[in-house]
Structure prediction request, 174 residues.
Amino acid sequence: MTSLTPETTNPHGGHTLEAMSALWSGELRSHGRRVTKQRLAVLAAVHGHPHSTAEEIVQHVREDLPTITVQSIYVVLADLTAIEMLRKFQPPGTPGLYETRTDDNHHHAFCIRCGRVEDVDCSVGEAPCLTPSESHGMTVLSADIVYRAICADCAAREAAEQESSSGPTAAVAP
Ligand SMILES: [Zn+2]
Ligand SMILES: [Zn+2]
Prediction:
């Protein structure tokens, strides 16, 4: 996990939190939502910690707003996802991860060992990115790919473990 003060910079750009808040306020209004400190706190938490679970977002929001209830954070998350200010995606074995990067057709690489998630840009530059072999008469809007992967750290750890278990002098005297 990163430090507890990532709020001043945007991992994808260089925007300050104030600039992002102004942007989010405009977007909220355009969706007919009131700009509340709860909604802005949830957006800031997800923005500062992309690919977080709802539970993790609760922790981060409560650093700013200690009195907000878990229930109201879940309601805000669901609403912001419905109006597409947040994107929720669900790699296997996770309860669903949220991010603010909603304006492109990017995919995710997911480490099946430790759960690490990284953004992967759209393979061909525009949605739907992948043309299905059979669309069943449906109009395909986008492809949302989860690349199942093993991250470099996990691969290195597994290689080291294999080495020590098969090494000739691995036994430790009792
Ligand atoms: Zn890993
Ligand atoms: Zn992402």
Notes: The helical segments are 17-30, 37-48, 54-64, 70-82, 152-166. Confidence is low (pLDDT under 50) at residues 1-10.
